[in-house]
Specification:
40% of the residues lie in helices and 14% in strands. It is α/β, with parallel strands linked by helices and 258 residues long. It has an eight-stranded parallel beta barrel with strand order 1-2-3-4-5-6-7-8, surrounded by five helices. It binds 3-methyl-2-oxobutanoic acid.
């Protein structure tokens, strides 16, 4: 398993591949893929639990899903999100980060320029990934960030500040390609992009987006499978065979053989 230090040291050497994961069977499958990081993100709230916003995710929900994922992940670095409201103050952040670590996380991630929190966590031995650009926990709208000179400068200085505070890597979400490239050159730790172009040190996607399982996906997502259609087809095939008396007796021309 790669440690946070291994991931930090990957800067300039190899691209970091990271995917989100929220449940046991998907964790078992993804753990075989040789990815650098598996991540129980608070996108959990939107793509798995059907909430409108990630800010509805609680520590209890994170711990529940993290436990399931941990039981499936044996060899990949496992990162977990500190959810909205769980790191308002450094001491509260440490208490909640420790709960995530006890539930099986190898490191934690938080959103925004919380330098005080990052410094405190790092001083207490917690490995932290930062996150700048679009911050879904607090964003009013999911739009590209850093498109103006002033907001680009703010996003860049936040990434610099998080690296200085001790983050071992920083997620750049939904920022222009040139800004991501500039930040990637400016900071000494890896950037992991999502909707931030090809010049980051790594890439992360939300698993349900890249598997084509969630109906609404951002424009920058590449789908590596089309599971939504596969599920509909499987459900319809089962329905037909039950209605026609072909399942369980009569064999099946439609079931996928494993
Ligand atoms: O929670 C999440 O899935 C994230 C990714 C968008 C990076 O923060």
């Amino acid at each position: 398993m790669k440690t946070a230090e291994d991931i930090r040291a990957a800067k300039g050497r190899s691209n970091i591949a990271m995917l989100t994961v929220y449940d046991y069977p998907t964790a078992c499958a993804l753990d075989r893929c040789g990815l650098d990081i598996l991540f129980v993100g608070d996108t959990l709230g939107e793509v798995e639990l059907g909430f409108a916003r990630t800010s509805e995710v609680t520590m209890e929900m994170m711990l529940h899903h993290l436990g399931a994922v941990r039981r499936g992940v044996k060899q990949t670095h496992l990162l977990a999100d500190l959810p909205y409201g769980s790191y308002a103050a450094p001491e509260q952040a440490l208490e909640n980060a420790r709960r995530l670590l006890e539930a099986g996380a190898d490191s934690v991630k938080l959103e925004g320029p919380r330098y005080d929190v990052v410094e405190y966590l790092v001083a207490h031995g917690v490995d932290v990934m930062g996150h700048v650009g679009l911050l879904p926990q607090t964003a009013q709208r999911y739009v590209r960030q850093g498109t103006r000179k002033s907001s680009a400068a703010r996003v860049e200085s936040e990434a610099v500040g998080l690296a200085r505070a001790g983050c071992y890597a920083v997620v750049l979400e939904y920022v222009p390609t040139e800004l991501a490239q500039r930040i990637t050159s400016a900071i000494p730790v890896p950037t992991v992009g999502i909707g931030a172009g090809p010049h980051c040190d790594g890439q992360v996607l939300v698993i349900t987006d890249m598997l084509g399982l969630y109906p609404r996906v951002p424009s920058y997502v590449r789908k590596y499978a089309h599971l939504y259609e596969t599920i509909v087809q499987a459900g319809e095939a089962f329905r037909d065979e039950v209605k026609e008396g072909l399942f369980p007796s009569g064999g099946s021309g439609k079931a996928v053989k494993s």
